[in-house]
Amino acid sequence: MLRDRIPRPHPLASAGFATLRLHMLMVAGRAIMSASRVRIAFSAACPHAVLFRGLARSFQPAGL
């Protein structure tokens, strides 16, 4: 399900589960939690920040 949402030209589109998990665990970010949402601030040096942001948005319900 997650791999299906990664755009085809991206190198992680054909990566295995272990590789995806490793890249997601190595993200340096700060989680900011409130009563209604969780925000993640990525490090400026995070090479996949744009991809992870897009993936998170793709799982949001329509209209939000």
Structure in words:
With 64 residues, this protein is an alpha+beta fold. The chain is globular, with a radius of gyration of 13 Å. The two termini are 21 Å apart.
Protein traits:
64 residues; 30% helix; alpha+beta
Average pLDDT over all residues: 78
Number of strands: 2
Enumerate how many helices there are, as a single number: 2
**Class derived from helix and strand content:** alpha+beta
Order of helices and strands: HEEH
Strand content: 15-25%
How big is the Rg? 13 Å
Low-confidence stretches: none
Order of strands, main sheet, comes to: 1-2
Helix content: 25-40%
What characterizes the major β-sheet? 2 strands, antiparallel
End-to-end gap: 21 Å
Shape: globular
Secondary structure blueprint with pairings:
Elements: H1 17-25, E1 29-33, E2 38-42, H2 49-58
Antiparallel strand pairs: 1-2
Short précis:
By secondary structure, the protein is of the alpha+beta class. It is built from 2 helices and 2 strands; from the N terminus they run H-E-E-H.
